[in-house]
Amino acid sequence: MATHRESMHGQWSSRWAFILAATGSAVGLGNIWKFPYMAGENGGGAFVLVYLLCVALIGIPIMMAEVLIGRHGRRSPTNTLMEICKEQHHSQWWQLIGWSGMLVGFLILSYYSVIAGWTLAYVFRAGSGTFTALGGDAVGKIFSDFISDPERLLAWHTIFMGLTMVVVARGVKSGLETAVTYLMPALFVLLLILVGYAMNTGYFTEGLSFLFKPDFSKISANGVLAAMGQAFFSLSIGMGAIMIYGSYLPQDASITRSSIIIALADTLVAILAGVAIFPIVFANGLDPAQSVGLVFNTLPIAFGNMPGGAFFGMLFFILLAFAAWTSAISLIEPMVTWLVESLGMNRVTAVVWTGACAWLLGIGTIFSFNLWSDYTINKMSFFDVLDYLTSNVLLPLGGILITIFAVWIMSEKSTREELSISHEQGYSIWRFVLRYITPVAMFFVLLKVAGIIGS
Question: Which helix (H) or strand (E) holds 78?
Answer without folding.
Answer: helix 77-87
